[in-house]
Write a structure and sequence with these properties.
Blueprint lengths: L1 H20 L5 H14 L4 E11 L2 E13 L3 E3 L9 H10 L1
Antiparallel strand pairs: 1-2, 2-3
Helix pairs in contact: 1-2
Length: about 100
Amino acid sequence: MEYYKTSGIILDACITVHKIMGPGLLESIYEQCLMKEFELRMVKAKNQVPISLIYKTHELSRELKIDILVENEIILELKSSEIMHPVYQAQIISYL
């Protein structure tokens, strides 16, 4: 049940940022604005969170980065694009 509440807050924060900033900006701009919006709403969030890259139980020297991790539970992968490409879904699945 907590996921529904948190996801509602996230969605509202994203809509607020988009309404204020408009379309067409870089993902990094939306990321900073969204982090500020979470701070204003007292939502715990971290950005550019590193994740170890694991291959066959071996940790490799490369790491992935999550755009935003909300409440240590929900991963946000920000995209500034008119089209949702299948590779975006593959990217978020690789984080999991």
